[in-house]
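We emphasize that the prediction below concerns an isolated chain of 102 residues; any contacts that depend on oligomerization or on bound cofactors are therefore not represented. The input was used exactly as deposited, without trimming of termini.
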Amino acid sequence: MSASFDFSVQYQVTDTGVGEAKGKGKSGDGGWLMAFAEAMGKLMQKQVEKIQDFADSIGDKPSPSDSTKLTAMTQMFQMFMNAVSTALKAMGEANAGMARKQ
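Result of the prediction step, given as a token string:
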């Protein structure tokens, strides 16, 4: 399950997120860091929708299997969210460091 999630995120970032980041980075509305944040936000929203759809589909009395799957999905989402947060923080700090050197 984890490999599938990783592949899905990589595919979406490669095919849509980076393209959006390139277009927004040129338009001057926050630069590439903001474009990256927006692209990652869209990916996170898609994952939230998948989790919500699954939660809705299992109803009020989920089987142990469904409950475990839902827990795994939310944990993977949390790991992805933490990775995005860490990446944004690292890139922002790197930009600040570069700005101080110039």
